[in-house]
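---------- Forwarded message ----------

FYI, see the Transposase record below. Original note from H. follows.
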Amino acid sequence: MVRDLARKRQQLVRTRSQHILAVEKIIARYHGNRITSNQVKRLDRGTIEQLRLPEDVSLALQPNVAVITTLSAQIEILEKRLREKVLLRPEYALLMTVPGIGLTLATVILLEIGSIERFASAGHFASYARCVESQHLSNGKKKGEGNHRNGTKYLAWAFVEAANFALRFCDPARRFYERKKAKTSPVVARKALAHKLARACFHMPKERKPFDMTRCFA
């Protein structure tokens, strides 16, 4: 299934991130400052030598860099295939109108949703996306995580990531977040924003309309 390609891509990205972080830490230990992840991705045997690290340290970096290079090539292959599969689907264009959702997140969300018709309501979809805080209380005390094991972790990740990006680039989203944070906490406010975006992504393909900023954050 195409969805499995998206999940494999996410797995490879996580693995690559671990190797990138390892390289960043080693270089910071010897130079006192970190280099960016994009700089790590551009490293090769020649650029490692230019860092003037102890010989054994340079040798230790090379396996990490080799893995990063290989994973980056495989990720690019998967991303190209995924774009070919989703680019012409009308739902993809609709998702791209949502603040915080770009090419990668639109692909993940579209493939994880499948058919929106299988969800009875926006609340049902938000729960499947793990964007609903489901707490069972007894005498005011939290007893369980509720929907933690329900739905799909991939959609949950996608909408939290979308919320993080929306916070940075969308003023209405940031204002909504700040209002929620003032009453609760940053974690709860971010989850509430993810919930808003998830509900919007339910209605848009149903109604075949792009994202409505006023409707979402009114």
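H. also flagged this: Residues 90-217 form one domain.
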